[in-house]
């Protein structure tokens, strides 16, 4: 029988721990303010941003909301980011992605002060992660590590295969698994003999962005499978990068979609905010 890793429960557990810590710091007069910027009104982004603000309210973190019109220029957005960088009352800055096409995403992420980069997207934080120095870590891969640890799954010495090499998930995921002393392989769209490699995995993290791409033929019997994907299928139902029904019986533990990795991203964002609070 396999374990279904309950991301909803684990994320709630983390949020409750953070809420207690934030309350203690608040009593000492220490607070944290997160500035959340959204440009345009992409419906998925609006849901994510709404959930982030809700989580802030639950934990006791202040949130400042900047809902800018689709026509906002790159210069206007950069000006706002610089103002927030210089505003000592603001502890964290989050610019929701994707940005409209006329705005250079990289330029915006580079402008956010690394000390306020609670998403962990700035190259300085990415670099710190890769050389084992403290810094903000990208929330989704950090959430995967918490799911594994809090489900009693050991990473040290395990064959870990990451399917996908994005800057936000695949690459930081590999770095974090390495930091936990896993033996890490990263696969991507040009990888040859993909199944041969994924079938070696004790822990397989799938972040390839293709609905139900991974079926049972990619998975070793008894492996742990973590599904980072989220898609809507033809019936408007949510599904992941993994074909859950065919894969689950071959695993020892697996994350569902929804209710697996998804809820962890916001919990880890809150954790990053809390860690950024004055000590
Ligand atoms: N868009 C989708 N996921 C994320 C995220 O984790 N952070 C930001 N800023 N934008 C996103």
Structure notes:
40% of the residues lie in helices and 17% in strands. Helix 6 (139-150) packs across helix 10 (262-275). It starts with a strand and ends with a helix. The strands form three sheets. It has a six-stranded parallel sheet with strand order 1-11-8-7-5-6. A three-stranded parallel sheet has the order 3-2-4, with helices on both faces. The chain has helices at 7-27, 43-59, 74-86, 105-111, 123-130, 139-150, 170-179, 194-198, 244-247, 262-275, and strands spanning 3-4, 33-39, 62-68, 92-95, 159-163, 183-187, 203-206, 223-227, 231-232, 238-239, 251-254. The protein is globular and about 55 Å long. The chain contains ten helices and eleven strands. The protein is of the alpha/beta class and 279 residues long. A hairpin with a 5-residue loop joins strand 9 (231-232) and strand 10. Bound molecules: guanine (GUN). The site of guanine has 7 residues, from strand 4. Guanine is lined by residues 94-97, 119, 139, 265.
Task: Supply the key terms.
alpha/beta; 11 strands; 279 residues; binds guanine; 3-stranded parallel sheet; 6-stranded parallel sheet; globular
With helices defined by DSSP (H or I, 4 residues minimum), what is the helix count? 10
Shape designation: globular
Strand order of the largest sheet: 1-11-8-7-5-6
Q: SSE string, helix = H, strand = E?
A: EHEHEHEHHHEHEHEEEEHEH
Low-confidence stretches: none
Termini separation = 44 Å
């Amino acid at each position: 029988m396999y374990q279904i890793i309950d991301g909803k429960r684990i994320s709630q557990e983390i949020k409750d721990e953070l809420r207690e810590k934030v309350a203690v710091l608040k009593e000492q007069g220490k607070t944290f303010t997160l500035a959340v910027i959204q440009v345009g009104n992409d419906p998925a982004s609006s849901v994510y941003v709404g959930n982030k603000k809700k989580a802030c309210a639950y934990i006791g973190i202040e949130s400042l909301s900047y809902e800018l019109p689709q026509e906002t220029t790159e210069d206007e957005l950069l000006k706002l980011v610089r103002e927030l960088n210089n505003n000592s009352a603001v502890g964290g800055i989050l610019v929701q992605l994707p940005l409209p096409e006329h705005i250079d995403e990289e330029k915006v992420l580079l402008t956010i002060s690394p000390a306020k980069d609670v998403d962990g997207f700035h190259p300085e934080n990415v670099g710190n992660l890769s050389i084992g120095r403290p810094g903000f870590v990208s929330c989704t891969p950090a959430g995967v590590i918490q799911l594994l640890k809090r489900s009693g799954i050991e990473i040290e010495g395990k064959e870990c295969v990451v399917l996908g090499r994005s800057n936000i998930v695949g690459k930081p995921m590999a770095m974090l698994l390495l930091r936990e002393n896993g033996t890490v392989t990263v696969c991507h769209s040009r990888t040859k003999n993909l199944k041969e490699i994924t079938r070696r995995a004790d822990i397989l993290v799938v972040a390839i962005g293709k609905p139900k791409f991974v079926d049972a033929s990619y998975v070793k019997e008894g492996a742990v499978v973590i599904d980072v994907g989220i898609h809507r299928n033809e019936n408007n139902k949510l599904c992941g990068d993994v074909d859950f029904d065919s894969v689950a019986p071959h695993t020892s533990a697996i994350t569902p979609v929804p209710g697996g990795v998804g809820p962890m991203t916001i919990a880890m964002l809150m954790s990053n905010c809390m860690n950024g609070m004055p000590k």
